[in-house]
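Contributing new records

If you add data, match the layout below exactly. Sequence lines come first and carry their own label; structure lines follow with theirs. Keep one chain per record. Anything else will be rejected by the validation script.
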Amino acid sequence: MRISSSLAIIAALALASCGKTPPTSGPSGFYTDLHLILNEGPFGTGTGTITAYDADTVIESAFAVENGFPLGNVAQHMLESDSLLFITINNSNKVRAINRNTLQHKWTVDLEQPRYLAAHGSNIFVSNWKDSAVYVLSKETGAQVDSIYVGNFSEQMMVFENKLFVGVGTYEGPYKLAEINVNTYEVTLHNTGDVPNSFAVIGNELFVMNSGEQNWGVSPDTKSSIWKYTGSGFSEQAVAPNTNKHAISLASDGTNGYFLNNSYDGAIVKWTPGQSWQTSTMTLPGGYKLNAHAGNLYFLDAKDYASNGELRVYSTSGDLLETVPAGVIPRQVIY
């Protein structure tokens, strides 16, 4: 294990306080059964971090503890695949691969303004805000395998039924959804709502949340909407009644959808396919991102976006189950 002396002291104190033995390297390590929170870190300065936790353990800056150097600025997205974690570091222009069980660094490649990740077979896909391509990298080495032109900057992604779906367009159009054959890399572009930001599979069907444009008074905002993949395109299923909030982070428990009703200070809203747009919230505002796993909702609160945030775990009926301290701007959980 490669730990600087100061970081080793921090790790020892964190672990001693909860009665855990020190991490161990190897195919099955200390972090195997811990949840991992990805924290963006402060924009422009400082570093993103990973918080590792379970019922009686919280380890802050776990990546730095294990490797002796920081993750980088800003930590954007983390993907688990084949016992590895892949992380995009947006401002630092890097993609990193680390061991899921030990958090030991495996490789880092330079890639300008990487955003989100998806995986298929021996490759990962990386969206970015630098050009109009999705990059294909080897899981094993990080070497570039290919690039796929999608017509504009690319954002959120999901693999569904052997197709890679990519949100195209960020905060200005044209907005499209790219459907990519994961074997041939053939691209089909579909129309959708403005600013596609998240995907979820609900009842074995693929849905996409569009936040709508948020133009800060410079020009009119547009409405949030939810669209469904039909096999030949996307059809609008529900649209927000007004433009005063911009919904994000569509997630699913398999039967129902859940999202945050406001992009920077949202509360959880439940939505079932076939319903109109829902406005009744399950929780109080405060959420920056929303994840779902094993019947629970993981509500990530960035608070003031400068100090440490927290993770609140809710049941799908809105009951608070657990609160976990997190780093600066928590945005995602790996389970």
